[in-house]
């Protein structure tokens, strides 16, 4: 009898799940779509363009994720150098569990150690060791309610938009080659970027959403720039450690722990590890090595035409300068 009741209960809950899945499929099918070069299909969902195949995971995350105050969320716009802070934040947060000789970064790619929530079928973060360290490209207004309401810290990383375009072009060309899709020029890529109908865009709304929140709630959102990490990695690591409530002790500082973390997470070290030289990330078509390229600030100078620079500068003048946010693009 009890067994019968249980199985009818589980029938009810699985039929509810089916109904919910059907409702999500219907919702996705009703969204405006854009087809283009970079990824075959994007859908306009809650005012941002999302690669359509990621939407079921993303919506499940929005609906079911219950943030804990101890969670840490790492957010970025794609190709802002996210791989680097994933390794850095993981090392800072877990430094009492792992040293440089046994860090999981030696045997796993940073994207495996700190997963993107939208790449993981739900239940995403179940069974993760606390504090749970998660990443996403979702814009601020679309984060799950529980993330915005709770005290869980958010670390946002952004990068000079011109370097981001160049990095993104190289990355997506590699993906296209691996799928035997035709290639496209940087000029075409730039135009696609300006049209904004791809990859968690509009870009400027993404950045300013987190920037404004970091000004209003500095204990909730830490806004980092890739260029600042390059310029002063030790200072930035101290900032991150304080922000997540785990400041480096004097002993650690004197013992060179910060420099050790910086070296372990450097492009040179991570790129040189066997684990990052071949193979694909779980559940994706993405080559692990494609996340490591040059990592140079100002790489755009060798690629981008003056007309593109002028166009980006005038957009920045309008959209971000009034908010006190600047990138060096001259
Ligand atoms: P994602 O948004 O798909 O996660 P993301 O890591 O943001 O990718 O972008 C990769 C960029 O970060 C590459 O920049 P580039 O194309 O200009 O070279 C990559 O080289 C850079 N990168 C990856 N790991 C590091 C690191 N440890 N230090 C510095 N830069 C890094």
UniProtKB/TrEMBL annotation:
Domain Sulfotransferase as annotated: residue spans: 69-321
A Pfam family matched in the record: Sulfotransfer_1
UniProt entry tagged with the keyword Transferase: yes
EC number, UniProt record: 2.8.2.-
Keywords tagged on the record: Transferase
InterPro entries (UniProt xref): P-loop_NTPase, Sulfotransferase_dom
Sequence similarity: Belongs to the sulfotransferase 1 family.
Protein name, UniProt field: Sulfotransferase
Organism: Rhodamnia argentea
């Amino acid at each position: 009898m009890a067994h019968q009741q249980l199985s009818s209960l589980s029938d009810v809950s699985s039929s509810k799940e089916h109904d919910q899945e059907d409702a999500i499929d219907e919702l996705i099918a009703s969204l405006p779509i854009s087809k283009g070069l970079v990824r075959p299909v994007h859908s306009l969902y809650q005012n941002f363009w999302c690669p359509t195949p990621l939407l079921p995971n993303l919506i499940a995350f929005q609906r079911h994720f219950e943030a804990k105050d101890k969670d840490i969320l790492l957010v970025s716009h794609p190709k802002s150098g996210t791989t680097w802070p994933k390794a850095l934040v993981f090392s800072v947060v877990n430094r009492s569990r792992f040293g440089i000789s046994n860090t999981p970064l030696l045997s796993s790619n940073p994207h495996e150690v700190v997963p993107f929530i939208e790449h993981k079928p739900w239940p995403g973060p179940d069974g993760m060791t606390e504090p749970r360290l998660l990443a996403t490209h979702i814009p601020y207004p679309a984060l799950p309610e529980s993330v915005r309401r709770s005290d869980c810290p958010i670390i946002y990383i952004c990068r000079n938009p011109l370097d981001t375009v160049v990095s993104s072009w190289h990355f997506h060309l590699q993906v296209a080659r691996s799928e035997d899709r035709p290639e496209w020029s940087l000029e075409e890529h730039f135009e696609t970027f300006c049209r904004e109908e791809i990859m968690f865009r509009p870009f400027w709304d993404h950045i300013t959403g987190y920037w404004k929140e970091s000004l209003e709630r500095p204990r909730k959102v830490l806004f980092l720039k890739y260029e600042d990490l390059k310029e002063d990695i030790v200072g930035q690591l101290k900032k991150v450690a304080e922000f997540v409530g785990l400041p480096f002790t004097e002993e650690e500082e004197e013992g060179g722990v910060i420099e050790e973390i910086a070296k372990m997470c450097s492009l040179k070290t991570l790129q040189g590890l066997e684990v990052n030289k071949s193979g694909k990330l779980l559940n994706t078509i993405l080559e692990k090595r494609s996340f490591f390229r040059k990592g140079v600030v100002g790489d755009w100078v060798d690629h981008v035409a003056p007309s593109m620079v002028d166009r980006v500068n005038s957009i920045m003048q309008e959209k971000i300068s009034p908010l006190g946010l600047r990138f060096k693009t001259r």
